[in-house]
Amino acid sequence: MDDYFAKYEDRLPQAPLEYSATRELVWQFLATVALVVGAWYIWWRWTASLNTEAMWFAVPLVIAETCAFIGMVLFVFNLWKDEPLEILDAPARLIDIAPDHPDGARPISVDVMFATYNEDPELVLLGIKDAQNITYPHPIDIRIHVLDDGRRDKMRKIAEAAGANYISRDTNEGFKAGNLRHAMEQTCGDLLVICDADTRPFPTILENTLGYFREPKMAWVQTPQWFYDLPDGQPFDEMLQGRFGAKAGSFGRGLQKIIGPVQLGTDPFVSDPKMFYDIIQRRRNWANASFCCGAGSIHRREAVMEAALRSFGKQVEKRTHATEEMITVASKEREIAPDMMDAIRTEAATTEILTPYRFHVSEDIYTSIVLHSDRERGWKSRMHPIVESKMLSPQDLLTWTVQRYKYAGGSLDILVNDNPIFGRGLTFAQRVMYAATFYSYLAPIWNLVFLVAPAIYLFTGVSPVAAYSSEFFWHLIPFLVTLELAMMAGTWGISGYAAKASYLSFFPLGARAIWSVMRGQTISFKVTPKVRQSGNFLALVRPQIAVVIATVAATIWACIALALGTTSHSATGVVSNVLWGFNNCLAMAGIISAALWVPGATDEGD
Length: 606
What we know:
Layout: H1 2-6, H2 21-48, H3 55-79, E1 108-116, H4 121-131, E2 140-148, H5 153-161, E3 165-167, H6 175-186, E4 191-196, E5 200-201, E6 218-222, E7 234-235, H7 236-244, H8 246-259, E8 263-264, H9 274-281, E9 297-300, H10 301-331, H11 338-351, H12 363-372, E10 380-383, E11 389-390, H13 397-417, H14 428-440, H15 444-460, H16 470-490, H17 497-505, H18 507-518, H19 542-564, H20 571-596
Parallel strand pairs: 1-2, 1-4, 2-3, 6-10
Antiparallel strand pairs: 4-9, 5-11, 6-9, 7-8
Helix pairs in contact: 2-3, 2-16, 3-14, 3-15, 4-5, 7-8, 10-11, 13-18, 15-18, 15-19, 15-20, 17-20, 19-20
Protein backbone atom coordinates (compact mmCIF):
# COMPACT_ATOMS: atom_id res chain seq x y z
CA MET A 1 0.00 0.00 0.00
CA ASP A 2 2.87 2.39 0.71
CA ASP A 3 4.04 2.00 -2.91
CA TYR A 4 0.55 2.84 -4.15
CA PHE A 5 0.42 6.16 -2.27
CA ALA A 6 4.05 7.05 -2.97
CA LYS A 7 3.26 7.45 -6.67
CA TYR A 8 0.75 10.21 -5.95
CA GLU A 9 2.29 12.06 -3.02
CA ASP A 10 3.63 14.91 -5.14
CA ARG A 11 0.32 15.65 -6.83
CA LEU A 12 -1.27 19.00 -6.04
CA PRO A 13 -4.92 20.01 -6.54
CA GLN A 14 -5.98 22.63 -9.03
CA ALA A 15 -6.68 26.10 -7.71
CA PRO A 16 -10.36 27.08 -7.50
CA LEU A 17 -11.91 28.87 -10.46
CA GLU A 18 -11.26 32.58 -10.39
CA TYR A 19 -14.22 34.88 -9.93
CA SER A 20 -14.99 37.14 -12.88
CA ALA A 21 -17.72 39.79 -12.70
CA THR A 22 -17.71 40.05 -16.50
CA ARG A 23 -18.18 36.32 -16.94
CA GLU A 24 -21.01 36.41 -14.43
CA LEU A 25 -22.86 38.99 -16.53
CA VAL A 26 -22.27 36.97 -19.70
CA TRP A 27 -23.51 33.80 -17.99
CA GLN A 28 -26.63 35.44 -16.60
CA PHE A 29 -27.47 37.01 -19.96
CA LEU A 30 -27.01 33.74 -21.87
CA ALA A 31 -28.90 31.79 -19.20
CA THR A 32 -31.84 34.19 -19.45
CA VAL A 33 -31.86 33.86 -23.25
CA ALA A 34 -31.72 30.07 -22.99
CA LEU A 35 -34.64 30.01 -20.56
CA VAL A 36 -36.77 32.23 -22.78
CA VAL A 37 -35.95 30.26 -25.92
CA GLY A 38 -36.48 27.00 -24.03
CA ALA A 39 -39.89 28.07 -22.80
CA TRP A 40 -40.78 29.11 -26.36
CA TYR A 41 -39.68 25.68 -27.63
CA ILE A 42 -41.61 23.74 -24.98
CA TRP A 43 -44.74 25.81 -25.65
CA TRP A 44 -44.47 25.10 -29.37
CA ARG A 45 -43.92 21.40 -28.70
CA TRP A 46 -47.16 21.14 -26.73
CA THR A 47 -49.29 23.33 -28.97
CA ALA A 48 -48.12 22.78 -32.54
CA SER A 49 -45.73 19.85 -33.01
CA LEU A 50 -47.30 16.67 -31.63
CA ASN A 51 -47.97 13.81 -34.03
CA THR A 52 -51.64 13.27 -33.28
CA GLU A 53 -51.56 9.89 -35.00
CA ALA A 54 -48.94 8.57 -32.55
CA MET A 55 -49.83 10.13 -29.22
CA TRP A 56 -48.51 7.02 -27.44
CA PHE A 57 -45.07 8.17 -28.54
CA ALA A 58 -45.50 11.93 -28.85
CA VAL A 59 -46.89 12.59 -25.37
CA PRO A 60 -44.26 10.67 -23.31
CA LEU A 61 -41.48 12.44 -25.25
CA VAL A 62 -42.87 15.94 -24.79
CA ILE A 63 -43.48 15.20 -21.10
CA ALA A 64 -39.84 14.08 -20.82
CA GLU A 65 -38.70 17.28 -22.54
CA THR A 66 -40.82 19.36 -20.18
CA CYS A 67 -39.39 17.58 -17.13
CA ALA A 68 -35.88 18.15 -18.45
CA PHE A 69 -36.66 21.84 -18.99
CA ILE A 70 -37.87 22.16 -15.39
CA GLY A 71 -34.57 20.60 -14.32
CA MET A 72 -32.78 23.18 -16.45
CA VAL A 73 -34.66 26.01 -14.72
CA LEU A 74 -33.63 24.65 -11.31
CA PHE A 75 -30.04 24.20 -12.45
CA VAL A 76 -29.86 27.76 -13.76
CA PHE A 77 -31.19 29.02 -10.43
CA ASN A 78 -28.50 26.97 -8.67
CA LEU A 79 -25.73 28.42 -10.84
CA TRP A 80 -27.15 31.94 -11.02
CA LYS A 81 -24.57 33.78 -8.95
CA ASP A 82 -21.02 33.30 -7.74
CA GLU A 83 -19.22 35.34 -5.11
CA PRO A 84 -15.60 36.50 -4.92
CA LEU A 85 -13.30 34.26 -2.92
CA GLU A 86 -12.35 35.79 0.40
CA ILE A 87 -10.16 34.15 3.03
CA LEU A 88 -10.87 35.74 6.40
CA ASP A 89 -8.20 36.13 9.06
CA ALA A 90 -7.90 33.08 11.30
CA PRO A 91 -9.48 33.73 14.72
CA ALA A 92 -7.01 33.87 17.60
CA ARG A 93 -9.26 33.06 20.55
CA LEU A 94 -12.60 31.42 21.27
CA ILE A 95 -14.24 34.83 21.75
CA ASP A 96 -13.57 35.56 18.07
CA ILE A 97 -15.99 32.82 17.02
CA ALA A 98 -18.23 32.71 20.10
CA PRO A 99 -18.57 36.30 21.45
CA ASP A 100 -20.83 35.29 24.34
CA HIS A 101 -18.81 32.33 25.56
CA PRO A 102 -17.82 32.74 29.25
CA ASP A 103 -14.40 31.22 28.60
CA GLY A 104 -13.71 33.27 25.48
CA ALA A 105 -10.10 34.18 26.31
CA ARG A 106 -8.80 30.62 25.81
CA PRO A 107 -7.54 29.16 22.53
CA ILE A 108 -10.01 27.44 20.19
CA SER A 109 -10.20 23.67 20.60
CA VAL A 110 -10.73 21.43 17.57
CA ASP A 111 -11.54 17.71 17.43
CA VAL A 112 -10.31 16.03 14.24
CA MET A 113 -12.33 12.82 13.86
CA PHE A 114 -11.48 9.90 11.57
CA ALA A 115 -14.50 7.61 11.20
CA THR A 116 -13.51 4.06 10.22
CA TYR A 117 -15.02 0.60 10.12
CA ASN A 118 -13.08 -2.00 8.13
CA GLU A 119 -10.52 0.07 6.24
CA ASP A 120 -6.82 -0.73 6.44
CA PRO A 121 -5.43 0.79 9.68
CA GLU A 122 -2.32 1.86 7.76
CA LEU A 123 -4.59 3.98 5.56
CA VAL A 124 -6.05 5.72 8.61
CA LEU A 125 -2.51 6.24 9.94
CA LEU A 126 -1.66 8.35 6.90
CA GLY A 127 -4.52 10.70 7.79
CA ILE A 128 -3.46 10.85 11.43
CA LYS A 129 0.08 11.85 10.46
CA ASP A 130 -1.20 14.54 8.11
CA ALA A 131 -3.53 15.87 10.80
CA GLN A 132 -0.55 16.17 13.15
CA ASN A 133 1.04 18.51 10.59
CA ILE A 134 -1.87 20.97 10.61
CA THR A 135 -0.57 24.50 11.15
CA TYR A 136 -2.25 27.55 12.64
CA PRO A 137 -1.02 31.12 13.18
CA HIS A 138 -2.26 31.24 16.78
CA PRO A 139 -2.24 28.90 19.79
CA ILE A 140 -4.86 26.20 19.20
CA ASP A 141 -5.83 22.93 20.88
CA ILE A 142 -6.06 20.20 18.21
CA ARG A 143 -7.06 16.71 19.32
CA ILE A 144 -7.07 13.77 16.90
CA HIS A 145 -9.53 10.93 17.40
CA VAL A 146 -9.98 7.60 15.61
CA LEU A 147 -13.62 6.46 15.68
CA ASP A 148 -13.39 2.72 15.07
CA ASP A 149 -16.71 0.98 14.54
CA GLY A 150 -14.79 -2.19 13.70
CA ARG A 151 -13.48 -2.47 17.26
CA ARG A 152 -10.10 -3.70 15.97
CA ASP A 153 -7.16 -4.20 18.28
CA LYS A 154 -4.71 -3.40 15.47
CA MET A 155 -6.42 -0.09 14.81
CA ARG A 156 -6.31 0.77 18.51
CA LYS A 157 -2.60 0.02 18.78
CA ILE A 158 -1.74 2.04 15.66
CA ALA A 159 -3.84 5.01 16.80
CA GLU A 160 -2.38 5.07 20.29
CA ALA A 161 1.17 4.62 19.00
CA ALA A 162 0.63 7.62 16.72
CA GLY A 163 -0.65 9.72 19.63
CA ALA A 164 -4.32 9.75 18.60
CA ASN A 165 -7.25 9.09 20.90
CA TYR A 166 -8.96 5.77 20.12
CA ILE A 167 -12.76 5.65 20.50
CA SER A 168 -14.96 2.59 19.91
CA ARG A 169 -18.43 1.45 20.99
CA ASP A 170 -20.26 -1.81 21.63
CA THR A 171 -22.70 -1.56 18.68
CA ASN A 172 -22.86 -0.04 15.20
CA GLU A 173 -26.21 1.65 15.76
CA GLY A 174 -26.75 4.47 13.29
CA PHE A 175 -23.60 3.55 11.33
CA LYS A 176 -21.43 6.62 10.66
CA ALA A 177 -23.93 9.03 12.25
CA GLY A 178 -24.05 6.87 15.36
CA ASN A 179 -20.28 6.65 15.38
CA LEU A 180 -20.01 10.45 15.32
CA ARG A 181 -22.66 10.83 18.03
CA HIS A 182 -20.81 8.47 20.34
CA ALA A 183 -17.55 10.33 19.71
CA MET A 184 -19.15 13.68 20.48
CA GLU A 185 -20.17 12.30 23.86
CA GLN A 186 -16.51 11.54 24.55
CA THR A 187 -15.05 14.85 23.32
CA CYS A 188 -15.52 18.57 23.92
CA GLY A 189 -13.89 20.54 21.08
CA ASP A 190 -15.49 23.82 20.02
CA LEU A 191 -15.22 22.74 16.38
CA LEU A 192 -15.21 19.34 14.71
CA VAL A 193 -13.34 18.30 11.57
CA ILE A 194 -15.05 15.29 9.98
CA CYS A 195 -12.77 12.88 8.12
CA ASP A 196 -13.35 9.52 6.48
CA ALA A 197 -10.81 6.75 6.87
CA ASP A 198 -9.00 7.81 3.69
CA THR A 199 -9.15 11.59 4.29
CA ARG A 200 -5.76 13.27 4.51
CA PRO A 201 -6.07 16.89 5.66
CA PHE A 202 -3.67 19.53 4.38
CA PRO A 203 -1.73 21.71 6.87
CA THR A 204 -3.86 24.77 5.94
CA ILE A 205 -7.29 23.24 6.56
CA LEU A 206 -7.90 25.22 9.77
CA GLU A 207 -5.97 28.37 8.91
CA ASN A 208 -8.00 28.86 5.72
CA THR A 209 -11.45 27.94 7.05
CA LEU A 210 -11.84 28.99 10.68
CA GLY A 211 -12.15 32.64 9.63
CA TYR A 212 -15.67 31.87 8.40
CA PHE A 213 -16.63 31.04 11.99
CA ARG A 214 -16.10 34.68 12.97
CA GLU A 215 -19.74 34.81 11.94
CA PRO A 216 -21.38 33.48 15.16
CA LYS A 217 -24.14 31.82 13.15
CA MET A 218 -21.78 29.85 10.91
CA ALA A 219 -22.70 26.22 11.58
CA TRP A 220 -20.36 24.43 9.20
CA VAL A 221 -17.89 24.92 6.37
CA GLN A 222 -17.52 22.34 3.62
CA THR A 223 -14.27 21.99 1.70
CA PRO A 224 -13.91 20.22 -1.69
CA GLN A 225 -13.21 16.52 -1.77
CA TRP A 226 -10.24 15.91 -4.05
CA PHE A 227 -9.30 12.46 -5.35
CA TYR A 228 -5.54 12.56 -5.67
CA ASP A 229 -5.07 9.07 -7.13
CA LEU A 230 -7.02 9.40 -10.38
CA PRO A 231 -5.13 7.52 -13.13
CA ASP A 232 -2.69 9.47 -15.27
CA GLY A 233 -4.16 7.86 -18.34
CA GLN A 234 -2.37 7.40 -21.67
CA PRO A 235 -1.71 9.92 -24.44
CA PHE A 236 -3.92 9.33 -27.48
CA ASP A 237 -0.97 8.89 -29.88
CA GLU A 238 0.69 6.33 -27.59
CA MET A 239 -2.51 4.29 -27.44
CA LEU A 240 -2.83 4.33 -31.25
CA GLN A 241 0.81 3.40 -31.74
CA GLY A 242 0.64 0.55 -29.26
CA ARG A 243 -2.44 -0.95 -30.89
CA PHE A 244 -2.07 -0.10 -34.58
CA GLY A 245 1.57 0.76 -35.18
CA ALA A 246 3.82 3.75 -35.85
CA LYS A 247 1.71 5.29 -38.62
CA ALA A 248 -1.33 5.38 -36.35
CA GLY A 249 0.79 7.01 -33.67
CA SER A 250 1.90 9.69 -36.12
CA PHE A 251 -1.72 10.30 -37.07
CA GLY A 252 -2.59 10.70 -33.37
CA ARG A 253 0.19 13.22 -32.81
CA GLY A 254 -0.92 15.22 -35.84
CA LEU A 255 -4.52 15.23 -34.70
CA GLN A 256 -3.53 16.46 -31.22
CA LYS A 257 -1.68 19.38 -32.78
CA ILE A 258 -5.06 20.49 -34.11
CA ILE A 259 -7.44 19.68 -31.25
CA GLY A 260 -5.01 19.75 -28.32
CA PRO A 261 -3.67 17.00 -26.01
CA VAL A 262 -5.95 14.00 -25.45
CA GLN A 263 -5.46 11.65 -22.50
CA LEU A 264 -7.40 8.37 -22.39
CA GLY A 265 -8.39 6.72 -19.10
CA THR A 266 -7.59 9.69 -16.85
CA ASP A 267 -10.86 9.42 -14.93
CA PRO A 268 -12.70 6.25 -15.99
CA PHE A 269 -15.57 6.67 -13.50
CA VAL A 270 -15.94 10.46 -13.84
CA SER A 271 -15.00 10.72 -10.18
CA ASP A 272 -13.46 14.19 -10.34
CA PRO A 273 -15.88 16.26 -8.22
CA LYS A 274 -14.66 19.69 -9.32
CA MET A 275 -17.90 20.40 -11.20
CA PHE A 276 -19.90 19.64 -8.06
CA TYR A 277 -17.81 21.56 -5.53
CA ASP A 278 -16.37 24.45 -7.56
CA ILE A 279 -19.55 25.13 -9.54
CA ILE A 280 -22.72 23.66 -8.03
CA GLN A 281 -21.94 23.86 -4.31
CA ARG A 282 -19.92 27.08 -4.49
CA ARG A 283 -22.74 28.88 -6.31
CA ARG A 284 -25.13 28.03 -3.49
CA ASN A 285 -23.29 30.27 -1.04
CA TRP A 286 -25.31 33.37 -1.97
CA ALA A 287 -28.50 31.58 -0.90
CA ASN A 288 -26.98 30.04 2.25
CA ALA A 289 -27.83 26.64 0.76
CA SER A 290 -24.50 24.84 0.43
CA PHE A 291 -24.97 21.51 2.19
CA CYS A 292 -22.56 19.31 4.09
CA CYS A 293 -20.94 16.41 2.24
CA GLY A 294 -19.28 14.73 5.19
CA ALA A 295 -15.53 14.32 4.84
CA GLY A 296 -13.53 17.55 4.77
CA SER A 297 -16.16 19.58 6.64
CA ILE A 298 -15.71 21.66 9.79
CA HIS A 299 -18.65 21.96 12.22
CA ARG A 300 -19.50 24.18 15.16
CA ARG A 301 -20.33 21.81 18.02
CA GLU A 302 -22.92 24.19 19.46
CA ALA A 303 -24.88 24.24 16.20
CA VAL A 304 -24.88 20.47 15.77
CA MET A 305 -25.94 19.83 19.36
CA GLU A 306 -28.59 22.54 19.38
CA ALA A 307 -30.11 21.17 16.19
CA ALA A 308 -30.10 17.72 17.76
CA LEU A 309 -31.96 18.96 20.82
CA ARG A 310 -34.58 20.75 18.72
CA SER A 311 -35.08 17.69 16.56
CA PHE A 312 -35.28 15.51 19.66
CA GLY A 313 -37.97 17.74 21.16
CA LYS A 314 -40.04 17.67 17.97
CA GLN A 315 -39.80 13.89 17.71
CA VAL A 316 -40.80 13.45 21.36
CA GLU A 317 -43.86 15.67 20.85
CA LYS A 318 -44.75 13.79 17.67
CA ARG A 319 -44.47 10.44 19.42
CA THR A 320 -46.44 11.75 22.40
CA HIS A 321 -49.23 13.07 20.18
CA ALA A 322 -49.46 9.76 18.32
CA THR A 323 -49.76 7.81 21.58
CA GLU A 324 -52.31 10.26 22.95
CA GLU A 325 -54.44 9.94 19.82
CA MET A 326 -54.28 6.16 19.94
CA ILE A 327 -55.37 6.07 23.60
CA THR A 328 -58.25 8.54 23.14
CA VAL A 329 -59.57 6.59 20.15
CA ALA A 330 -59.37 3.29 22.01
CA SER A 331 -60.83 4.59 25.30
CA LYS A 332 -63.30 7.04 23.66
CA GLU A 333 -62.22 9.61 26.24
CA ARG A 334 -61.75 13.23 25.16
CA GLU A 335 -58.89 13.92 27.56
CA ILE A 336 -56.16 11.95 29.26
CA ALA A 337 -55.30 12.47 32.90
CA PRO A 338 -52.26 14.74 33.52
CA ASP A 339 -50.34 11.99 35.31
CA MET A 340 -50.79 9.64 32.35
CA MET A 341 -49.73 12.37 29.91
CA ASP A 342 -46.55 12.89 31.93
CA ALA A 343 -45.90 9.16 31.76
CA ILE A 344 -46.48 9.16 27.99
CA ARG A 345 -44.02 12.03 27.50
CA THR A 346 -41.43 10.32 29.69
CA GLU A 347 -41.80 7.12 27.72
CA ALA A 348 -41.51 9.04 24.43
CA ALA A 349 -38.36 10.82 25.63
CA THR A 350 -36.87 7.52 26.76
CA THR A 351 -37.65 5.81 23.46
CA GLU A 352 -36.46 8.63 21.18
CA ILE A 353 -32.74 8.86 20.43
CA LEU A 354 -30.84 12.13 20.79
CA THR A 355 -28.42 12.21 17.90
CA PRO A 356 -26.40 15.19 16.58
CA TYR A 357 -26.25 13.56 13.15
CA ARG A 358 -29.49 11.93 12.01
CA PHE A 359 -29.30 8.14 11.70
CA HIS A 360 -29.65 8.06 7.95
CA VAL A 361 -27.64 6.84 4.97
CA SER A 362 -27.36 10.51 3.89
CA GLU A 363 -26.78 11.92 7.36
CA ASP A 364 -24.76 14.87 6.03
CA ILE A 365 -27.44 16.43 3.82
CA TYR A 366 -30.11 15.50 6.39
CA THR A 367 -28.29 17.41 9.12
CA SER A 368 -27.78 20.33 6.72
CA ILE A 369 -31.53 20.58 6.15
CA VAL A 370 -32.23 20.49 9.89
CA LEU A 371 -29.79 23.35 10.54
CA HIS A 372 -30.90 25.44 7.56
CA SER A 373 -34.52 25.05 8.66
CA ASP A 374 -33.86 26.61 12.07
CA ARG A 375 -35.13 30.13 11.35
CA GLU A 376 -34.90 31.12 15.02
CA ARG A 377 -31.15 30.56 15.16
CA GLY A 378 -30.46 31.39 11.51
CA TRP A 379 -27.58 28.96 11.08
CA LYS A 380 -25.35 29.52 8.06
CA SER A 381 -23.12 27.34 5.92
CA ARG A 382 -20.27 27.98 3.53
CA MET A 383 -18.66 26.16 0.65
CA HIS A 384 -14.94 26.94 0.86
CA PRO A 385 -13.65 26.45 -2.71
CA ILE A 386 -9.99 25.72 -1.95
CA VAL A 387 -9.08 22.04 -1.61
CA GLU A 388 -7.92 21.40 1.97
CA SER A 389 -7.66 17.60 2.00
CA LYS A 390 -7.24 14.62 -0.30
CA MET A 391 -8.80 11.18 -0.46
CA LEU A 392 -9.04 8.04 -2.58
CA SER A 393 -11.21 7.69 -5.66
CA PRO A 394 -13.41 4.66 -6.47
CA GLN A 395 -11.14 1.95 -7.88
CA ASP A 396 -13.73 0.00 -9.88
CA LEU A 397 -17.28 0.20 -11.18
CA LEU A 398 -18.71 -1.82 -8.29
CA THR A 399 -17.33 0.67 -5.75
CA TRP A 400 -18.63 3.57 -7.86
CA THR A 401 -22.05 1.89 -8.01
CA VAL A 402 -22.23 1.43 -4.24
CA GLN A 403 -21.32 5.07 -3.70
CA ARG A 404 -23.71 6.56 -6.28
CA TYR A 405 -26.63 4.35 -5.26
CA LYS A 406 -26.17 5.50 -1.68
CA TYR A 407 -26.21 9.16 -2.77
CA ALA A 408 -29.30 8.74 -4.95
CA GLY A 409 -31.27 6.49 -2.62
CA GLY A 410 -30.49 8.54 0.48
CA SER A 411 -31.52 11.82 -1.15
CA LEU A 412 -34.73 10.36 -2.57
CA ASP A 413 -35.57 8.80 0.80
CA ILE A 414 -35.38 12.26 2.38
CA LEU A 415 -37.57 13.70 -0.38
CA VAL A 416 -40.27 11.06 -0.06
CA ASN A 417 -40.36 10.56 3.71
CA ASP A 418 -39.42 13.98 5.10
CA ASN A 419 -39.85 16.36 2.14
CA PRO A 420 -38.14 19.51 3.44
CA ILE A 421 -39.14 21.49 0.34
CA PHE A 422 -42.63 22.08 1.72
CA GLY A 423 -41.70 22.02 5.39
CA ARG A 424 -41.15 24.97 7.68
CA GLY A 425 -37.97 26.93 8.11
CA LEU A 426 -36.20 27.03 4.76
CA THR A 427 -36.12 30.27 2.78
CA PHE A 428 -37.49 30.29 -0.76
CA ALA A 429 -33.99 30.21 -2.24
CA GLN A 430 -32.99 27.29 -0.02
CA ARG A 431 -36.13 25.37 -1.01
CA VAL A 432 -35.31 25.80 -4.69
CA MET A 433 -31.69 24.75 -4.14
CA TYR A 434 -32.67 21.57 -2.31
CA ALA A 435 -35.40 20.97 -4.89
CA ALA A 436 -32.72 21.09 -7.59
CA THR A 437 -30.74 18.42 -5.74
CA PHE A 438 -33.67 16.07 -5.22
CA TYR A 439 -35.09 16.67 -8.70
CA SER A 440 -31.81 15.71 -10.34
CA TYR A 441 -32.16 12.20 -8.90
CA LEU A 442 -35.53 11.82 -10.66
CA ALA A 443 -33.92 12.43 -14.06
CA PRO A 444 -33.53 8.71 -14.93
CA ILE A 445 -37.30 8.66 -15.53
CA TRP A 446 -37.20 11.06 -18.48
CA ASN A 447 -33.65 10.19 -19.51
CA LEU A 448 -34.88 6.68 -20.27
CA VAL A 449 -37.37 8.19 -22.72
CA PHE A 450 -34.58 10.15 -24.41
CA LEU A 451 -32.50 6.98 -24.74
CA VAL A 452 -35.16 4.80 -26.36
CA ALA A 453 -36.88 7.46 -28.50
CA PRO A 454 -34.35 7.42 -31.40
CA ALA A 455 -34.48 3.63 -31.63
CA ILE A 456 -38.27 3.66 -31.65
CA TYR A 457 -38.36 6.00 -34.63
CA LEU A 458 -35.55 4.23 -36.48
CA PHE A 459 -37.22 0.83 -36.03
CA THR A 460 -40.80 1.88 -36.78
CA GLY A 461 -40.67 5.06 -38.82
CA VAL A 462 -43.26 6.50 -36.43
CA SER A 463 -42.39 10.09 -35.57
CA PRO A 464 -43.17 11.76 -32.22
CA VAL A 465 -43.42 15.12 -34.00
CA ALA A 466 -45.76 16.15 -36.77
CA ALA A 467 -42.80 16.37 -39.16
CA TYR A 468 -39.04 16.75 -39.15
CA SER A 469 -39.51 19.98 -41.03
CA SER A 470 -37.71 23.31 -41.17
CA GLU A 471 -40.18 24.59 -38.57
CA PHE A 472 -39.12 21.84 -36.15
CA PHE A 473 -35.42 22.64 -36.55
CA TRP A 474 -36.14 26.39 -36.36
CA HIS A 475 -37.46 25.81 -32.83
CA LEU A 476 -35.07 23.07 -31.70
CA ILE A 477 -31.67 24.36 -32.85
CA PRO A 478 -31.85 27.84 -31.23
CA PHE A 479 -32.78 26.19 -27.94
CA LEU A 480 -29.90 23.70 -28.07
CA VAL A 481 -27.38 26.36 -29.13
CA THR A 482 -28.37 28.92 -26.50
CA LEU A 483 -28.47 26.22 -23.83
CA GLU A 484 -24.98 24.98 -24.72
CA LEU A 485 -23.57 28.51 -24.79
CA ALA A 486 -25.14 29.30 -21.42
CA MET A 487 -23.79 26.13 -19.81
CA MET A 488 -20.33 26.80 -21.25
CA ALA A 489 -20.34 30.25 -19.66
CA GLY A 490 -21.78 29.05 -16.35
CA THR A 491 -19.25 26.23 -15.97
CA TRP A 492 -16.34 28.02 -17.64
CA GLY A 493 -13.02 26.40 -16.79
CA ILE A 494 -14.38 22.90 -16.28
CA SER A 495 -15.07 20.32 -18.99
CA GLY A 496 -18.76 19.54 -18.83
CA TYR A 497 -19.24 16.72 -21.33
CA ALA A 498 -18.08 13.89 -19.05
CA ALA A 499 -20.50 15.04 -16.33
CA LYS A 500 -23.39 15.25 -18.80
CA ALA A 501 -22.60 11.82 -20.24
CA SER A 502 -22.41 10.32 -16.75
CA TYR A 503 -25.71 11.98 -15.85
CA LEU A 504 -27.37 10.29 -18.84
CA SER A 505 -25.75 6.87 -18.39
CA PHE A 506 -26.67 6.85 -14.68
CA PHE A 507 -30.26 5.89 -15.57
CA PRO A 508 -30.33 2.19 -14.44
CA LEU A 509 -28.84 2.92 -11.03
CA GLY A 510 -31.06 5.97 -10.57
CA ALA A 511 -34.15 4.02 -11.60
CA ARG A 512 -33.27 1.30 -9.10
CA ALA A 513 -32.95 3.90 -6.32
CA ILE A 514 -36.30 5.47 -7.27
CA TRP A 515 -38.02 2.07 -7.30
CA SER A 516 -36.50 1.06 -3.95
CA VAL A 517 -37.65 4.26 -2.23
CA MET A 518 -41.14 4.09 -3.77
CA ARG A 519 -41.50 0.55 -2.44
CA GLY A 520 -40.53 1.72 1.03
CA GLN A 521 -37.27 -0.22 1.13
CA THR A 522 -34.58 1.00 3.49
CA ILE A 523 -31.48 2.32 1.74
CA SER A 524 -28.79 0.41 3.59
CA PHE A 525 -25.47 1.93 4.59
CA LYS A 526 -22.52 0.21 2.96
CA VAL A 527 -18.97 1.37 3.54
CA THR A 528 -17.42 2.38 0.22
CA PRO A 529 -14.49 0.02 -0.45
CA LYS A 530 -11.09 1.73 -0.50
CA VAL A 531 -9.33 -0.97 -2.55
CA ARG A 532 -10.08 -2.31 -6.01
CA GLN A 533 -12.67 -5.10 -6.10
CA SER A 534 -11.92 -8.06 -8.35
CA GLY A 535 -14.26 -9.46 -10.98
CA ASN A 536 -16.00 -8.67 -14.24
CA PHE A 537 -18.29 -5.64 -14.03
CA LEU A 538 -20.05 -5.86 -17.40
CA ALA A 539 -23.12 -7.23 -15.60
CA LEU A 540 -23.50 -3.79 -13.99
CA VAL A 541 -23.87 -2.08 -17.38
CA ARG A 542 -26.22 -4.44 -19.20
CA PRO A 543 -28.89 -1.73 -19.66
CA GLN A 544 -26.34 0.64 -21.18
CA ILE A 545 -25.09 -2.12 -23.51
CA ALA A 546 -28.70 -2.80 -24.50
CA VAL A 547 -29.16 0.88 -25.42
CA VAL A 548 -26.09 0.76 -27.68
CA ILE A 549 -27.10 -2.51 -29.36
CA ALA A 550 -30.70 -1.36 -29.91
CA THR A 551 -29.56 2.00 -31.32
CA VAL A 552 -27.02 0.46 -33.70
CA ALA A 553 -29.49 -2.18 -34.89
CA ALA A 554 -32.18 0.46 -35.38
CA THR A 555 -29.78 2.65 -37.34
CA ILE A 556 -28.92 -0.20 -39.74
CA TRP A 557 -32.59 -1.06 -40.17
CA ALA A 558 -33.64 2.54 -40.82
CA CYS A 559 -30.90 3.10 -43.41
CA ILE A 560 -31.98 -0.03 -45.30
CA ALA A 561 -35.65 0.96 -45.04
CA LEU A 562 -34.90 4.47 -46.27
CA ALA A 563 -32.95 3.12 -49.22
CA LEU A 564 -35.76 0.75 -50.18
CA GLY A 565 -38.42 3.40 -49.67
CA THR A 566 -40.92 0.90 -48.27
CA THR A 567 -41.54 2.62 -44.90
CA SER A 568 -42.59 6.01 -43.60
CA HIS A 569 -39.02 7.03 -42.70
CA SER A 570 -37.88 10.43 -43.95
CA ALA A 571 -34.30 11.41 -44.69
CA THR A 572 -34.33 14.26 -42.16
CA GLY A 573 -35.96 12.01 -39.58
CA VAL A 574 -33.36 9.27 -40.03
CA VAL A 575 -30.40 11.66 -39.96
CA SER A 576 -31.75 13.49 -36.88
CA ASN A 577 -32.39 10.31 -34.91
CA VAL A 578 -29.12 8.68 -35.96
CA LEU A 579 -27.23 11.71 -34.63
CA TRP A 580 -29.36 11.67 -31.48
CA GLY A 581 -28.75 7.95 -31.02
CA PHE A 582 -25.02 8.39 -31.65
CA ASN A 583 -24.86 10.95 -28.83
CA ASN A 584 -26.67 8.47 -26.56
CA CYS A 585 -24.24 5.69 -27.49
CA LEU A 586 -21.29 7.97 -26.86
CA ALA A 587 -22.63 8.68 -23.36
CA MET A 588 -23.14 4.94 -22.71
CA ALA A 589 -19.64 4.14 -24.00
CA GLY A 590 -18.03 5.93 -21.07
CA ILE A 591 -19.57 3.77 -18.38
CA ILE A 592 -19.23 0.59 -20.47
CA SER A 593 -15.51 1.23 -20.86
CA ALA A 594 -15.34 1.92 -17.12
CA ALA A 595 -16.69 -1.60 -16.51
CA LEU A 596 -13.80 -2.98 -18.55
CA TRP A 597 -11.15 -0.66 -17.13
CA VAL A 598 -8.21 -2.27 -15.35
CA PRO A 599 -5.37 -0.23 -13.84
CA GLY A 600 -2.29 -0.30 -16.02
CA ALA A 601 1.20 -1.02 -14.85
CA THR A 602 1.72 2.64 -13.99
CA ASP A 603 -1.54 2.92 -12.04
CA GLU A 604 -1.87 -0.33 -10.15
CA GLY A 605 -0.83 -0.52 -6.52
CA ASP A 606 0.84 -3.45 -4.82
